[in-house]
Amino acid sequence: MDHDDLRNWSKRAADWAHGYHAGLRDRPVRPRVAPGSVATRLPAQAPEDPEPIERIFTDFETLLVPAMTHWQHPRFFAYFPANAAPASMLAEQLANAIAAQCMLWQTSPAATELEAVATGWMRRALGLPERFSATIHDSATVATLSAVITMREAASAGQGNANGLFSLPRLRLYASEQTHSSVDKAVRVAGLGQANLVRIPTDATLAMAHGELDSAIRADLAAGHRPAGVILAVGGTSVGACDRLRAAIGVAKSHGLPVHVDAAWAGSAMICPEFRALWEGVEEADSVVVNPHKWLGVQFDCSIQFLTNPAQQIRSLSLKPAYLATAGAATTDYSDWTLPLGRRFRALKLWMTLRAYGLQELRRRIRNHVAWASQLAEAVATHPRLLITTPPVLSLFTFAHREGDTATDALLGRINDDGRVYLTPSRHFGKSVIRVQVGQFDCTRDDVMMVARVLRELA
Ligand SMILES: *Cc1c(COP(=O)(O)O)cnc(C)c1O
Fold this sequence. Notes:
By secondary structure, this protein is an alpha/beta fold. The protein has helices spanning 3-22, 53-64, 86-98, 109-126, 140-155, 159-163, 181-189, 210-222, 245-254, 292-295, 310-317, 347-381, 405-418, 445-458, and strands spanning 133-137, 171-176, 197-200, 226-233, 259-262, 287-290, 303-307, 386-393, 396-401, 424-428, 431-437. It has 14 helices and 11 strands.
């Protein structure tokens, strides 16, 4: 395959993609395939000789596509959708064509500067103050890990990187039970250890009990441990729990501790001023992660970390051997802000998406999702066999079968085998619940209400 073939096949791929998207509602959201069924149909080794693209393309269409879960299906209500608005898919095509590796300003001047500009647009759109600058990671997992390593290095005065944590007091981090597993992964990978992530109980609203946070920090200080930072949630993944940032950050700051806020899915909604009460006080945080690849239509991967003191994160993560040194004026090298050296050109899809739709259109979609989720929750509440277990937080709510876990789990199995909609499970206060998360870029009210119809038939 050469560049002329690529040109022809790209056109074919574009036509194929158009048809694929137009026909998504006719496909089950999740395929009914048994584990291993795809692998057994593929040869065990790579061909020695070139194969015609025609044949490879046909295999893609017939072997792979039917065995995919369709994330861009308008009735995908599982996890949180990873959206791909058409403008962002176009941006990815262009980024693929250039295929730049954007580790340093010098390896990608326009990409680096666009990253600063487009994340600056996002900062303003979200109502965050000017003292935040930002970078784009691949995932909230890496953003949170970067923040945790920065906390570790600040609390250990650089000892973690230099000598390891062996001779230090225990470094302690604090988060509620509602934070995402990426926080657990970060404390493990950063070498702090799971036991040093202190789980602060939540109150009746599922927000971290900030009095308990204060007591936990004091107890650790008394025990000779060293508090290193607090991680707060705005829109937990399971049921959408939101910590009350102003109060919790107040406690953290009274002990001089840095704060990282995980608003991976809910953060995009803050382009609508009426939802900002959910993260009231966020401007006092040191680090905030928001994934435009979840709710803003920007294709995966695009996770923005806003930072008030990037210099501290750069001190913790930057390593510049001689072969990476670049001469000349001071520039931003975004690989200094994160773990991987190599970086994709992610700013292009953020910039093109923001321009192609404008903030008004993006707000309109998010507002619709929130309104429809709440209308659907009302419909579910009227079903005699179902009950709402957590009310909507923005576009996420959970429900369960009144007869208990076995009935709830069986119902979810029937819903997903049916294929018209796709929902996922969680647990709340030890009980099985079914999550509904509305956020697919192109879903309509009818798509959302299809969940009620499926439930009427299957519950
Ligand atoms: C999705 C999600 C994450 C993980 O996001 P990745 O970008 O996939 O790493 C973390 N926290 C919350 C609250 C999420 O919703």
